[in-house]
């Protein structure tokens, strides 16, 4: 779907504050409420807007530690990857998971309370997955940038 300038502005504003009223959104993009509402619905129906969420402060929830875990699988086959994916999808500590090209097969992003929780995650979950061969973890010292808004 090719976006026009109004649609881009709507998406940019909703990425910053999805609780904005239709009236305020309409005023900011130069439309009346009804056409603005229809534009938002079109963007939702086209799948450009997948949903609306509340962004939580992980630190205030006690999730102080951000960890990246690189995983190398024992074999490269569809069934091995499928079993690994199913295990990871069922784990709440894994915030993001990517399949990669190169020496690492998958990259996991975790938010955990502390390093003890990382040890528990590794020993009680990740290293118990039969498909996992080698892991390598990196702990973030500090967060420099973490945005949710996509560049439009």
Automatic annotation (TrEMBL):
One of its GO terms (biological process) is regulation of DNA-templated transcription. GO terms for cellular component: cytosol. One of its GO terms (molecular function) is sequence-specific DNA binding. Keywords: DNA-binding, Transcription, Transcription regulation. InterPro entries: ArsR-like_HTH (IPR011991), AsnC-type_HTH_dom (IPR000485), Dimeric_a/b-barrel (IPR011008), Tscrpt_reg_AsnC-like (IPR019888), Tscrpt_reg_AsnC/Lrp_C (IPR019887), Tscrpt_reg_HTH_AsnC-type_CS (IPR019885), WH-like_DNA-bd_sf (IPR036388), WH_DNA-bd_sf (IPR036390). Residues 3-64 form the HTH asnC-type domain. It comes from the Bacteria. PROSITE patterns: HTH_ASNC_1, HTH_ASNC_2. Pfam families: AsnC_trans_reg, HTH_24. This is Transcriptional regulator, AsnC family. It comes from Aromatoleum tolulyticum.
């Amino acid at each position: 779907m090719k976006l026009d300038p109004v649609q881009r502005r709507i998406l940019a504003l909703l990425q910053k504050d999805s609780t904005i009223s239709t009236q305020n959104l309409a005023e900011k993009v130069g439309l009346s409420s009804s056409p603005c509402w229809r534009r938002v619905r079109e963007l939702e129906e086209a799948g450009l807007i997948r949903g609306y969420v509340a962004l939580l402060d992980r630190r205030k929830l006690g999730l102080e530690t951000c960890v990246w875990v690189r995983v190398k699988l024992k074999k490269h086959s569809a069934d091995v990857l499928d079993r690994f994916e199913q295990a990871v999808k069922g784990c709440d500590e894994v915030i993001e998971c990517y399949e990669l090209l190169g020496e690492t097969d998958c990259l996991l992003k975790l938010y955990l309370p502390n390093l003890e929780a990382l040890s528990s995650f590794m020993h009680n979950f990740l290293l118990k997955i039969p498909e996992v061969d080698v892991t390598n973890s990196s702990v973030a010292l500090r967060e420099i940038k973490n945005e949710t808004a996509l560049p439009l």
